[in-house]
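User: Sequence in, structure out. Go.
Assistant: Echoing your sequence, followed by the structure tokens.
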Amino acid sequence: MKKFSSLLHCLILTPSRNSKINLLKDYFSNLDINKAYALSILSDKLSFQFIKASKLREIVYNNVDKNLFDFSYDYVGDLAETISLIWPKNNKSKNHKISSLIENIQTLKKNQINAEFSKILDQLSSSERWALIKICTGGLRIGVSERLVKTAIAQQYNKSLIEIEEIWHGLKFPYSNLFKWLKGEANKPKINFKDLFHPMMLANPLDEEKDFLNLYPKDFQAEFKWDGIRVQLMISSSSIALYSRNGEDISRTFPDIIENVKGEAVIDGELLVGKKFNPSTFNDLQKRLNRKKASVELIQKYPVFIRAYDILFYKGKDIRKLKLIDRRKYLEKFHSEHEKNKIDLSPIIKFSSWKELEKYKTSSIDELNEGVMIKHKNSEYLPGRKKGFWFKWKKNPKYVDAILMYAQRGHGKRSSYYSDYTFGIWRQKELVPIGKAYSGYTDKELLELDKFIRNNTVKKFGPVREIKKEIVLEVAFDNVFLSKRHKSGVAMRFPRIHRIRWDKLAKEVITLKEFKKEFKLQ
């Protein structure tokens, strides 16, 4: 556990990507059950049933003065760090292997958690406590993605990253077949494509000034960037599964897809809400997301379908190495063979120049797409974000000036700063919140806002501070919809701070009525 907690601390304090990779390579230079647990943790595949943030607070309150802990947590801003530092010192330190520690915790019954977990915290150093609590609550926030872990392992054992990505989602703890292959003791693990999520091909944001100098319209095809969630649909005679872009199995959430598709293929597409293949808003789709099970009423009110972009397998044949234009023929063939499936095709946009394509990108006729996708006609289906093949050309963002109302501490490296902001506009003489944002600002602006917030707090609500209504923020956002769930009646899509309007008075900010009129929400 000491080695793993040391690794996590080093990764947090190391900004360089290559240096992080070297730390990971060194840690995984030998492979055993402890490294299997570490791999599971770094890939966010380990969870504990009973140990959540609320349970940890309960355990701490039994060992530390409640008010002291609450004040400390408010100041520090990070639960794991607060507990690790405030936990009473003792002389019960004990060396734990990460494997035995986790296995011990996993066997605890619900009524044993308080007493036994307290004993475990007693036996760990402050850095080990911090690491364990991070593991238990999830979200390490150490600047390491799953892809970076795969890259480090590939480099350490002289394998290609693509080789590892091809089998990654079919691997199971304790990764015995992976470790044997890496050490040269066995062949590459064979995994049935029907049981495997295949890493998606991603697009790079288009840099209009640079990229268009080297891109030629005749080499590319375009389609709309639909405003849903990217999914992968696995269809076979033996099983059907639906995965999110991160490989999470979301089949149970969308039975109306699973029960209404046939054939044998792996489809890449966009999950959308709508009837008769007419997409509705992302706000409607959100009503179906993050639910373990959808009710019959919800399915009937917000039915979903898949708008297909690409096809990876057709009747058991891997066609990812084919050109995009050839894969499209297979996709069209599959669609014509199964017209009753809840799948339609993302139409290809015909264009002869970038200027002509820009008209589709900027068109305000259809607010249900985010812009256009530009894909090289000869591109293979390659996992990850490969340069030069696929580009996303998004619509220009919309902007509104809004007043800072509330602020909350961030997480990870921002846990000491008030970096999460709620902002609003006027409804007559009352301010109503229209969104939250925690990105877009510079480090300098973060420091300026943090200082203002600390010096101009009106009220405190736990970790949240109400602020004097003096700061105006220019907020950028992709789209906005009517919403009954929000007090203002509107919901923003991807809001972020564009700049601070030090020059503008709060009384000059528009009203909710004007906002709805400007963005056609009447």
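User: And one key feature?
Assistant: Residues 3 and 461 are 39 Å apart (CA to CA).
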